[in-house]
Automatic annotation (TrEMBL):
Ranges of residues in domain FAD-binding PCMH-type: 10-174
Record PANTHER family: D-ARABINONO-1,4-LACTONE OXIDASE, L-GULONOLACTONE OXIDASE
Descriptive protein name: FAD-binding protein
Name of one Pfam family that matches: FAD_binding_4
Stored Gene3D superfamilies: 3.30.465.10, 3.30.70.2520, 3.30.70.2530, Uridine Diphospho-n-acetylenolpyruvylglucosamine Reductase, domain 2 (3.30.43.10), Vanillyl-alcohol Oxidase, Chain A, domain 4 (1.10.45.10)
Alphabetized UniProt keyword annotations: Oxidoreductase
Amino acid sequence: MTLTNWAGNIAFDAARVHRPSTVDQVREVVAGAERVRVLGSGHSFNDISVTPADLVSVAGLPVEPRIDAAAGTVTVAGGVRYGELAAFLDAQGYALHNLGSLPHISIAGAVATGTHGSGAALGNLATAVAGVELVTAGGDLVRLARGDADFPGAVVSLGALGVVVGVTLDVLPAYAIRQFVFEHLPRSVLDARWEDIATAGYSVSLFTGWAGDTVDQLWLKLADGEEPDGFGAAPARRTMHPIAAMSPESCTEQGGVPGPWHRRLPHFKLEFTPSSGEELQTEFFVARDDAVEAFAAVERLRHLVTPVLQISEIRVVAADELWLSPMYRRDSVALHFTWIRDVERVSPVVAALEEALAPLAARPHWGKVFHHAARPERLTDFLALRDRLDPDRKFGNAFVERHLAAE
Ligand SMILES: Cc1cc2nc3c(=O)[nH]c(=O)nc-3n(C[C@H](O)[C@H](O)[C@H](O)COP(=O)(O)OP(=O)(O)OC[C@H]3O[C@@H](n4cnc5c(N)ncnc54)[C@H](O)[C@@H]3O)c2cc1C
């Protein structure tokens, strides 16, 4: 059976697929291979993990989460899914600062692409990384920790530096979240009160089809002491799926019922298919201050966007210092598009959006469908780090060569 990504639009086509069950086996595979890519849980929508040579999955490494209460961290195998780690942490009275919309993704894979949730004060998931342990090109085990000069380059790595076998993440005391959904936010209010809306709760998401004079849904995930403000939108009278016509069975509990952080921060439950299930995704990041301009730019392309769109989501993410992070030194608004699963029809629309958002210096999500990424500000530093860790580009592939070319 052909191995594909979650969306089914990318076949991995590797000559060999390795599923090591120990770190020593990972080191052996890497040392003996000419070209290697690592596969996480396969939730990316482009050819980021594709290689004609050796593909390594670290999903079979022992999970072994270890909490260091004094340091406020947990160390865990890179292939573990967020949902699994979250349940473990919560049972021990700990939490992560944020989660993506789905708990199904592997930690190392999500971190490698700068995957994020929402929250004006919350950095992407990679910002919780305090240390990484990776098997580099010669089969050596290298540990990098926050504070090391190379560390900011090694976290959002696009899998181009080595196989991440262990990740150390910051933890917090477990906390409760209440999730509220509002419907039909007047479109004019989004522009007029953007800053208030973006900062209206611990985590804020808006879902829109970019048509009509309302935004379909406003989701607020509130921490202790925060009260919901719908900004003139109506409280939802039933549990909602971001695509209103779909069954909300897969969605985490709403209606303001307090619950553990890991059962409210993701939109979707671990035991169900997330999102629509038949889709492609694209996401662009611009400065949070440029959000209103970015909304207008998308709406000018409404005639192209809406025929291939299932739903869009607007989120906010705090700036960080990670070299290849899409939020590098920029508080960001994330404009997400869940498309129909039709590459040929979606591709030109993505190109049109890239052109329209280029004046705002939009950056793409590394794990989603895009054509062109502007040169990351710290690319030279990243390439120098790669030259040190992987001089022969063992961990390269077509995606990396295309988007991280020196010039
Ligand atoms: C339904 C759905 C919802 C999504 N929601 C969100 C969201 O809310 N926010 C968001 O930002 N993104 C979201 N995404 C995108 C997703 O988070 C990213 O594509 C993420 O990279 C997926 O993690 P993965 O483990 O599947 O990585 P993969 O797609 O398997 O791999 C991604 C990259 O990570 C590298 N990698 C994986 N494991 C390792 C390792 N152990 N060592 C070194 N490199 C490794 C791979 O080589 C590759 O370069 C969503 C995707 C889907 C399908």
